[in-house]
Amino acid sequence: MAGRDNRTQKVKPTESELKEKLVNLNRVAKVTKGGRTFSFAAVVVVGDSNGTVGHGLGKARDVSEAIAKAVDDAKKNLIKVPILKGTIPHEQKGKYGAGKVFIKPASDGTGVIAGGAMRAVLEIAGVHNVLAKSQGSSNPHNVIKATIDALSKLRSPVEVARQRKISLEKVFNG
After folding, report:
1. Of 116, 86, 161, 82, which Cα lies nearest the Cα of 171?
2. How far lies 97's CA from each of 34, 73, 100, 147, in Å?
3. Which of 109, 151, 153, 174 has the greatest number of beta carbons closer than 10 A?
4. In which order are the strands placed within the sheet that holds 112-113?
5. Closest CA to 123 of 35, 51, 37
6. For strand 130-136 and strand 112-113, is the pairing parallel, antiparallel, or unpaired?
7. CA distances (Å), 69 to each of 28, 44, 93, in order?
8. Is residue 29's pLDDT more than 90?
9. What is the pLDDT confidence band of residue 18, given thresholds at 50, 70 and 90?
10. Residue 4 has pLDDT above 60, yes or no
């Protein structure tokens, strides 16, 4: 399991501009003496399309309540993603459980080339041009967490220059 490191900065949710996207809704049944009892598990991704993204899981007896719980959960774990000219600064791999993802920057006009759950995370984060590949598990829970892991590991050129104690030009030309 990929642990959170000190580079990941949590973001406080500002209610107004966060968009939400339902990624997966799962109906589960519990068999009791009186028949089946259905409940719902919702996986939601929230973000402001400007570098902030988070995911959440909510479970309840009805769909709308599960989605509301998932949105509240997602707002509690938002992260900031460095976005450079509509794409990501560099290639990055992410892993969570058996879900492995690979994201790669793309030139302008490429669009979001990513599958299912990854697409939702990248679009809501505000990445417009990216190439992405999901390997291993196709379970939306793990794919989302692996994608967020990869996004949290991204470093902006400014941060790289500061850590290496060199100028910003040297990062690009070095």
Report:
1. 161
2. 37, 20, 8, 12
3. 151
4. 92-96, 99-105, 130-136, 112-113
5. 51
6. parallel
7. 17, 9, 29
8. yes
9. confident
10. no
Burial 134-166 (b: 16+ CB within 10 A, else e): beebebbbbbbbbbbbbbbbbebeeebbeeeee
Q: Which two tokens stand for residue 46?
A: 């929230």
- How high is the pLDDT of residue 130? 94
Average of pLDDT values for 83-106? 92
DSSP assignments along 68-82, one per residue:
HHHHHHHHHSEEE--
pTM greater than the 0.85 cutoff: yes
Residue owning tokens 């949290």:
152
The secondary structure element, H or E, covering residue 148 is helix 140-153
Q: How far apart are CA 134 and CA 109, in angstroms?
A: 21
Q: Which residue has the tokens 């769909």?
A: 63
Longest distance between any two alpha carbons in the chain, whole Å: 70
Q: Measured between alpha carbons, how far is 45 from 70 in angstroms, rounded to an integer?
A: 8
Amino acid at 148: I
Q: Which structural domains are found in the chain, ordered by start?
A: 10-79 (3.30.160.20), 82-165 (3.30.230.10)
